[in-house]
Amino acid sequence: MNSEIKVCDLGIGQKEVFRELEWSLESPHLLSDLLQQVMSELDQYFFTRGRTYLSGQRKLLEHAARAILGAEEDPSVVIPLLPGVGKSTLLRSILKVLARQFAKSTDYATQLGGVIIVVEKTAEAYELRDLINSVGDHLAHVLEGPNDFNIAHGSCLRGEVAGYMDCPGRSCPDAATCPLLQSAAKANQTPFLILMHARYQAYISDLTPFRPWVSPTEQMRCRNLLIVDEAPALLSDNRIAISEIANLEIQISCLKPSYQRQTDYMKSGLLLQLGMQLRQPFHVLMRLCRERFGRLGAVDADLLKEAGFDWDALDSFTKQLAHYAGCSANSWIEKLRALRTGRAVFMVGQEKMLVIPTCLTPDTRNCLRSFILSGSASLSPELVSNPDFRVLEGKLDKSNSHLSIYIQHTDAFATSKTAMQRIGNRKALAAWLRYRLAQIPEKEKVLVVTYKSYAAELWNELSDFHDQLIPLQSDDGSPPKPYLPYFGGMNGSNQYRAATYVICAGLGRFEFSDYLNRALAFDFDGKSWNKLQQSCQQNAINDASELLCVKHAANLTLARDLVQLVFRSALRNHSEATPVTLWLVQPPSEVVMLVKSFFSDCVVIESNELPTECLIETAAHRTVKGKLTHAAQLLQWLKEWDGAEISVAEIQHTLKMTPTQWKEARKNEVVRSIFEQQIQSRRLGKDTLIRSANDADRTHIL
């Protein structure tokens, strides 16, 4: 770090008292002084940890801080800071400076009203709460419910609950005093409110319940700043099916007592309208879709009108439902509002359903300013292509030439989640991993990531390499878990940054229907919807995976996840140039292109080399109609054979093979290669291997 950078005294001293006398809300010194405090906090952090700023890094962080403190006028802004650049440190510095303003009740704090912070994990929420409250008492509150983390950290008063699944909730005898169950009641007592992603996603379009709070002087205030650490899912699929309509009917019927005449009258009217305005036209729509489409169809406004949907009547029903059910009806109100756009998808799965994918719109009412800090914004169309967001400049001029991406091509085995259900693919993958790990120097740390279902099995298969492998880390302070990290379950990016090798044992994918929803929800120019309509009109589609826009959405999502994954390794240390290697097995070519584009000057190397062990494991578990092939039976016998002399007839008897079946098994390419390898290794002729001089029917099958 530049030793000439001065770290300011940020305590409450004579300088700040003098400034407060000078300041007014219109003073140009206000923003610059707050910005100087934030940058001094950042400088102090870098100085105490012996870190140095990269070229352009300090300016990048300063630009982001200036926008958040008040220089940015757009209501919804995306700040694209790469993982490891200082995003979390910047957030802490800003919150510490803002906390001082609220502790002193300055004019700036009064104008700002309060701050809502959104984080992914409870551990992060606690850390930020403690940081803010260290500046002044009762400034921050975490709005949470029972989960494994906070229960493990003593938040359960009874001490008898081990995890979320054991929590009895409102039926607990101590529910009235439980800090977790009563957390919402304290949400309006502090200027800083910290939410988790899941709660924010449910209220992203209307944050009204979380904005007001009451100051110690009994004055009502409104939180006007929202900071989101990492972009949440901005997708809502708005599914409508007969089962969900039935659930709505049950909700209306059971929500209020029928013995009150006025309530019963309103309830009966709602149930009648539900049947006429929603259930009946939905049944007609499902029949029309089944006649015109296969398992997938594009439903437009004309088809909805043909089915009998009356928007004026539905508007009246929606208003009455909102009056009757309140907030509990919000999800259905959103579904019906989305349906009115006239862009829905008919799908046939367990039941026939209508899906209306939409991109969630951020709340901008009443002067709320929102900032989303994202490390992979360039691969997130819901951010960069969304007209509701403005994306700030966030590029760091940094070389990625020390990143090498190896692409393993193979037709011998597959590593998709479905393919991994077959033991042959799992055994072949384990053999490939052992082969690759044996080539990595022992001093290097390796991060192997796979599917949750097979994380323990593969960890056991790689027992010889446990000293090199990084097991699944926990963010609650407990010891590492005895299995491999898995897609979607890796908490704590910093806990994997020692890895110099990242190997993806599979690829974290979703169902293609999810990618269809993403393609249509984030279709801001209408091209994906038009392609879907054309394909359905021509009866040229029966599966979402056939659409190019869906494949692109799938590849874009996968590329973004891979970028986040590789940044968990030593690549996160931007001040270093430690070589980092990423191995991918048979990824789609577009995914490789997107990842390479993100890391610009990284090196991509393709490999077709496969160890013989992979081929053996694949062939040894190959089945036909549920039964092992003859070659597979012979290979499995060879794997267990102790090398003792045995006759061909004895082998055939053991495996219950006829001579013809034996001949078929011996013709297998893998079986033949094993014989040839043994011939070369023993320097024996074929006749010597097949029969000995003493017994024409004896052989060494090695």
Largest sheet: 7 strands, parallel
How many β-strand stretches?
24
Content-based structural category: alpha/beta
Average pLDDT confidence is 85
Strand content: 5-15%
Radius of gyration: 31 Å
Shape: globular
Task: Bin the helical content.
Answer: 40-55%
Give the low-pLDDT segments. Answer: 1-26, 680-702
First-to-last CA distance: 63 Å
Strand arrangement within the widest β-sheet reads 3-4-2-7-14-1-15
Q: What's the total helix number?
A: 26
Oligomer: single chain
Q: What does this 3D model show about the protein?
A:
The protein is of the alpha/beta class and 702 residues long. It contains 26 helices and 24 strands.
List keywords for this structure.
single chain, 702 residues, alpha/beta, globular, disordered N terminus, disordered C terminus
